[in-house]
Design brief:
The chain is α/β, with parallel strands linked by helices. Helix content is about 35%, strand content about 20%. It binds zinc ion (ZN).
Length: about 325
């Protein structure tokens, strides 16, 4: 459960804005805008065209220069951070190599097809619609990055510096954060879900812990998470502690011979009991198992099947 917060633009530094979408659950992602009054940089688009257009309209209202956004950065490949890209015609699109490669694997048309098929897919389909049934993926053209990097990339937005810092693979293969050293504002992408369970699609979780340490070393004054309300360094410490707790519990369950689903059902949530999207636990546990076994983590379909089982398995059918 997340403290209530408002949808829309919030200025987090001089000319630096977060765009927030409560409640931060599945698909309800945040984005960012950096402007010096003339040049503009957008950090992430939203899950569908309608949501992205509403965001861009609000940005143009606050910052006239946002009528022609010069640079778009995608923090990672999940559709809730890049499916609106096609509305940014004329912008250069920048992402890490890992992100660019992953982005072409699940295009919007594939999500539209899955939503259409979901009613015939049993519990998996029911869970999928619960997560994504509110979004409109029909007719979205993908727009992929034309410029890639690995490691770090320094960008200029007029007279402002923006450092892109790749910390993946963790949530996805190419997770990237955007850091404004002068304003001390950090956009984490989905390295931070504030008030909800993270989900390790890629992992390993050890990389995610290293990302938390990297954030703490930067000592940002304002943190815009990929989902959830504006955050502070304390929220990053909470995530680091959660990931360590996850490691401990998952190692123990692995040694006992429990399946990830059994381990998730028994998981002691401790002080994270009120975090949203608890079903992600099973994917995170499976990711630690894969690391321990030297195996591949579950693919997205297997992950959704396990989450559907955890989320709906205890509910009566129907
Ligand atoms: Zn996301």
């Amino acid at each position: 459960m997340v403290a209530s917060y408002e949808r829309g633009l919030a200025e987090v530094g001089d000319g630096v804005f977060a765009y927030l979408q409560p409640d931060g659950g599945w698909g309800w992602s945040n984005a960012g805008l950096v402007s010096d009054g003339e040049a503009t940089l957008l950090i992430d688009t939203l899950f569908d065209l309608e949501l992205t257009e509403a965001m861009l309209a609000e940005m143009r209202g606050a910052v006239p220069a946002a009528a022609q956004i010069g640079t778009l950065v995608n923090t990672h490949a999940n559709g809730d951070h890049c499916y609106g890209n096609s509305l940014l015609s004329g912008a250069r699109i920048v992402a890490s190599e890992g992100t660019a490669a992953e982005m072409s694997e699940l295009p919007p048309a594939a999500m539209a097809a899955l939503v259409e098929q979901a009613p015939n897919m049993g519990r998996l389909g029911e869970f999928f619609l619960r997560c994504f049934g509110r979004f409109d993926f029909e007719g979205i053209e993908p727009a992929l990055p034309g410029e890639t990097f690995s490691g770090e990339l320094e960008l200029r937005v007029g007279d402002r510096d923006v450092s892109l810092i790749e910390v993946g693979p963790a949530h996805t293969r190419g997770d990237t954060m955007a850091w404004l050293p002068s304003e001390r504002v950090l956009f984490t992408g989905d390295i931070l879900f504030n008030g909800a369970h993270p989900i390790a699609w890629a992992g390993p979780v050890s990389n995610w812990l290293a990302a938390c340490e990297r954030i703490e070393a930067l000592a940002p004054e304002a943190i815009v998470p990929g989902h959830g309300p504006l955050a502070g360094i304390g929220d990053v410490r909470e995530l680091r502690d959660y990931l360590n707790h996850l490691y401990g519990q998952a190692r123990h369950a692995h040694a006992e011979g429990l399946t990830p689903l059994q381990a998730a059902r028994r998981f002691e949530l401790d002080r994270w009991a009120d975090w949203g999207e608890r079903e992600r636990l099973v994917v995170n546990i499976a990711n630690v198992y894969a690391e321990l076994d030297g195996a591949e983590p579950p693919n997205a379909l297997e992950a959704f099947q396990q989450m559907a089982e955890l989320a709906l398995g205890e509910e009566p059918a129907g």
